[in-house]
Amino acid sequence: MTETGKIREIKGNLIIIAPEKGAACFGCTNQECQAGGGIITAENTSALPLKTGQEVEVGVQGATLLGQSLTALLPPALSFAGGYVLGRLLFPESGEGAAAGIGVVFLFAAAFIVYLIRKRKPAGMAYTVTRIIN
Question: What is the mean pLDDT of residues 90-118?
Answer without folding.
Answer: 93
